[in-house]
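quick one, two chains, predict together pls
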Amino acid sequence: MADQKKQGTAKLIEVELPQSSIEQDRKQLEKTWAHAHGVLGWLMEVDHKVIGLRYIKTAFAFFLFGGIEAALMRIQLARPENHFLSPDTYNQLFTTHGTTMMFLFAVPIMTGMGIYLVPIMVGTREVAFPRLNAYGYFVYLIGGLLLYTAFILNTGPDAGWFAYVPLSGPAYSAGKRVDIWAQMITFTEISGLVGAIVIIATTFKMRAPGMTLSRMPLFVWAQLITSFMIIFAMPAVMLASGFLASDRLIDTHIFNPAEGGDAILYQHLFWFFGHPEVYIIFIPALGFISPIIITFSRRAIFGYTAMVLSLVATGFIGFGLWVHHMFATPLPQLSQSFFTAASMMIAIPSGVQIFCWIATLWGSKVHLRMPLMFVLGFFAIFILGGLTGVMLASVPLDLQIHDTFFVVAHLHYVLIGGSVFPLFGALYYWFPKWSGRMLSERLGQLNFWLMFIGFNVVFFPMHQLGLQGMPRRVYTYLPQTGWGSLNLLASIGAFILAAGVLVFLINVFWARSAGAIAGNNPWGADTLEWSTSSPPPVYVWEYLPTVEGRYALWMQNEKTPLVVGLSTTKREILSTSVVDAFPELRFEVPGASIWPAAVALATAVAFIIGIFTPWAFAVAAVLAFAALAGWFWSNPDYENVNAQNPTEAFMKPTEQPKELQPKEA
Amino acid sequence: MFYVSTAVFVVVLAALVVAIVKGYQQESSDDLPQLELTEANKKRRTNVVLASVVATVVILFIFLLYSFLIGKGLTSELAQKNGVVIEITGHQWWWEARYDNVDASSIFTTANEIHIPVGVPVTLSLKGGDVIHSFWVPNLHGKKDLIPGKISTIWLQADQPGVFRGQCAEYCGLQHAHMALWVIAEPREQFNNWIQSQIQEAVVPATDSAKHGQRIFLSSACVMCHTISGTPAGSNIGPNLTHVASRQTIAAGTLENTREHLASWVNNSQRVKPGNRMPTMSFSDNDLQPLLDYLQSLK
């Protein structure tokens, strides 16, 4: 079988393509890849660019909601014994804030960036499983709407974003609040897993010919490693939230100590997911930083291999730290020590990357544009957060500052500094690609400085508050504690930070109609997405590109071949080998379909009505069966997969570039 | 740790700033990308990066050893300590403290206020009553969780007399914010006196008003939850009130223990600490004043 495949290898042929046939191909492609229209079309669309942007916009909306919740909490804490919010409202707010930022903003927006950019960056036209991808988005949207519907109806979860048992168990959280939290987790899990599978398959099997693993952009590496982490981390929290839901719905007592259950087990399951989650948010951000530094220093990255290995190491070590969230539980000292060591060890790969970035910037010609500004903000904030992280890894120190505002400060330095600042940099960087227009640099400067100063004014004093003994998750504090003035300062900072985000929104709305026209490659960047127009056409490429080096656009020349011979009347995709990206076969990906939305609906029936009665699962099973039957029935006919002659021809070159030759040759 | 971390922060950021300032360029997007560095340049960079990584590893390793040694100090002496033993149970949202003793008649229970002798190790045995709480008196010891179904043990020692505030550090529901306690460290003699007074049964009301107050206490919903030893009131749902007047605060460190606060707590606890487990009582002033007289007599 393998031999057969090898025989059908691509030959490099020079073909003459008359202008008229290029025109014809373009017209045909436009028809084949056209978007679906109307309300039904909205539900049916599978284009990864559309789905990716939907993820990004939805997640950003949740980011704004989460920010409003944070602002309300800061008003409440601005002075001691404040009565602005009731304790119940405050507890719902901090729970919803944490849940929103972690599950509905940070992970999905990274997924969205990947879904939009990965296929273009690896030089293909669609993700590997477009319908699955659309399904993932609907499930995520439903999960988010569920949480906010509940919140508006005053049944928002109030047991913390971690929902520790027994507080979240049936005995101490009556009503449906915690069930809504648990099922919302399930929704976002499903969508996270779906997104991860889609990205892994796309990066492994659909890269442009010539883009070997060692030439893959660091952005794509980061997305790939994150996706693997999602696949290993998410099942743990699925168990945690699933067992919690079953304890509450069908009295399983898995976490009930009175019936032989175990309350600590929940914490292990939750943090076995919860800590990798931090890196699931952080690694894609590292993936934003590398291309931005490469582009604005106009230089190859220093230590590509070390960078990739650091990402991989972070992915592995990230699974060995979870107990540092549990140092105050009765676990033996010796076993805690292992986790101290692992928690400190993870600083090493982060350090390697920071050193390599500085080595790249050192002595280069720096173009200080907005994306790079945000990356510099990342350095300042994240390094501080990383250092307080090393402090928290030490058991004796952690026992004092655990669950205080010191941790609140630390986690925001790491997550906002490590993730949100690079994300804003990435939004400035790729916005021209999505919209065809540039964001304003002047508003950008205002945006950056308001956010940077506001951020530090909010969160820096919290270190001190934590050291003074202010615990987390308190809705108020007594005046005698003396925590009032620093809290007031932090609350003022919150509004500066919020003003920064507002300026960003203004910038986006202004640029959509009045921003400068971007052109294909406004930054002079090196990755493939900058060679197609901004915004890219529905079919992305008239002819798929090939790649001759690690910095695709910087290394290409007029002899770089293009792929011709893919069908223009079907949505045909080129599949290549995992390591060498050598063409293997062509296959058709499915187009617009209503079935993903239908399956998402069946999923919603299962988990939303399942909050009230286990019968929902029986009903949903029937619905899902019907919807899945429709889905598979309408898939393209895989018997027509063309494995014999994957690429009929390459265009243009007269000499055959080395990496396109089959290995035997 | 703090100084080393600060130094690392400053050095790394300084390197970054220098790199940016040195290389800062005005608009000139036409300069060609640089794909290869010269051999010498590359080697120098590799050496600097490697040296930084080695420095990181060394610093982390020193932190690690330091952390182990202190951690060892916190736990290893546990077995040898056998002074005072106090069993602490966390409840939504107050602390129960039971002073253990080989002599069963000397065991007593109090709430939200712990007295300890100065200069003597005190062993705390921590139990979760309902949900998870975390015992934390910042000036005496780090946190330890109180987890239902598990017992954790810590020891602490006050070297100086003093009054130390503690607060629950694990989110435990609606009134997590108002779950404080006080630790009073006092010389051995004073401590022994306190113990002796706490072992006693509650004082018998002396005045008519206090006697009336006791009758009101025993005939109202109070007895459903509270204990006053020496009286028929013997329920363990709420804090033990045998010596409530000897405590400095009420409602788990929320209010100073004054007559006025006591009155607002008894009749209106849901306003003071919304959601707490004490039902709203509605004593008329005729009943409330004697009741307060009685409670305030319980030294």
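The helical segments of chain B are 2-23, 39-76, 188-199, 208-219, 259-272, 285-297.
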